[in-house]
């Protein structure tokens, strides 16, 4: 049985709490949060608002905003225990070295209230000590996640990459939504194309999957599209991404 | 029984041929192509390389490159028959007015050799005459596609939108692939995030689904990401899309 304490009460803390509690071999012995209010979600478990009252456990999982990680880690009233954070961008070394350190980063976008299937979430794991890696790996295996050994520097690269595939792709959808709305076309017509574009990565690299006027060097269509776009920022984005695609294919 | 002639022998012509032949109530009576060579795919049907030999049919479907549509439509040796093209960007009026005109545009990305499920492909339909719309709608219904009445101007907007959700999203995947490879991280770690990002459009508008440092106005993370990016073009894209997202959320 791996005994765990979760520090934090936000979105990710709640998702982790839910999956850990539902998993054999894992036990959440306590949830800490600075304020009592947010702790109501966790009332099937011991909760505390005082770091001094933290119970003993095999692992302390800090699931708070990046800029609060160091402060909590510094204030922990014990040493030589396994303390991990869950951030995509913070270095493992943000955790105070008085404890054994690690990172347990689930690479996915979490929506409040939407149930999460951890078997579809890759976990990026990192530890200072080899033996601790086994503990993180056991937790990942127990909840059915694929896990990867990822250094802080690699995790930083993944976090930027995630911005491209998630934040920026979603912004492409947003722009398409704006354009279709402005032309009284239902956005749902584009849903199957969005799905198919995402599905293709399972069988083709993005390099191979690329199509369209930018790749073909079809200037007539490019000009027609630029003329059709009303907003300057959309024109700018269209132009820059078209350049970048053209460059990728040696045009 | 709707009798059809397909003009063209490329990727889309082949996919249409396959689904029409498999559908009750539809009959492909002939396939035309300028050169004999490409016609081998269609040899279960009458084929011709001469427009003068075209058989009589209820509908002539031109599935060729955009810049070849007008030339074929002009040379058709008959009048007052229903002639449609299948292009996302060409106006219906590119077809010669000696015939009844229309557009039958499947909004999807077609990969050569990969079987296509037309029940998941929206069809954008347009006709000059109301009665002809019914014929296009019957064909769409017969192959199980959702169809929409879309004007040439709306179709042009959809075609630009499709570039954003397909070509540009795929390019976001490509950039993420480059970054992860440069850092020895397997790109597959990002697959679930790509899927989830695409899946979210079914439950949330892209506006509601947006997350990330640009939306939050988290300048520290933005600076960290820009520092991590090696290529100038990636920095440029990151900066422009971050600006555009910030603007969308009134920052």
Automatic annotation (TrEMBL), chains A, B:
InterPro entries: 6-PGluconate_DH-like_C_sf, DUF2520, NAD(P)-bd_dom_sf, P5C_Rdtase_cat_N, TM1727-like_C_sf
Top-level lineage group: Bacteria
Name used for this protein in its record: Uncharacterized protein
All residue ranges annotated as the DUF2520 domain in the record: 121-245
Domain Pyrroline-5-carboxylate reductase catalytic N-terminal: from-to ranges: 5-85
Pfam families, per the entry: DUF2520, F420_oxidored
């Amino acid at each position: 049985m791996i005994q765990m304490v979760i520090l934090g009460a936000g979105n990710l803390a709640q998702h982790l709490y839910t999956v850990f509690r539902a998993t054999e071999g894992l036990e959440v012995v306590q949830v800490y949060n600075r304020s009592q209010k947010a702790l109501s979600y966790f009332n099937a478990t011991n909760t505390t608002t005082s770091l001094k009252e933290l119970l003993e456990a095999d692992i302390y999982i800090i699931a708070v905003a990046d800029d609060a990680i160091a402060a909590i880690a510094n204030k922990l009233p014990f040493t030589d225990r396994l303390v991990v954070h869950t951030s995509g961008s913070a270095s493992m070394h943000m955790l105070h070295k008085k404890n054994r350190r690690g990172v347990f980063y689930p690479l996915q976008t979490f929506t409040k209230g939407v149930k999460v299937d951890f078997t579809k979430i890759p976990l990026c794991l990192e530890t200072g000590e080899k033996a601790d890696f086994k503990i993180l790996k056991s937790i990942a295996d127990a909840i059915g996640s694929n896990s990867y050994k990822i250094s802080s520097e690699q995790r930083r690269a993944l976090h930027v990459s995630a911005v491209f595939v998630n934040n920026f792709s979603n912004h492409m959808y947003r722009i398409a939504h704006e354009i279709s709305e402005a032309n009284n076309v239902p956005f749902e017509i584009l849903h199957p194309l969005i799905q198919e574009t995402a599905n293709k990565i399972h069988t083709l690299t993005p390099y191979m999957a690329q199509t369209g006027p930018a790749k073909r060097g079809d200037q007539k269509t490019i000009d027609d599209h630029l003329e059709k776009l009303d907003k300057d920022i959309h024109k700018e984005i269209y132009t820059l991404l078209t350049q970048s695609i053209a460059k990728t294919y040696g045009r």
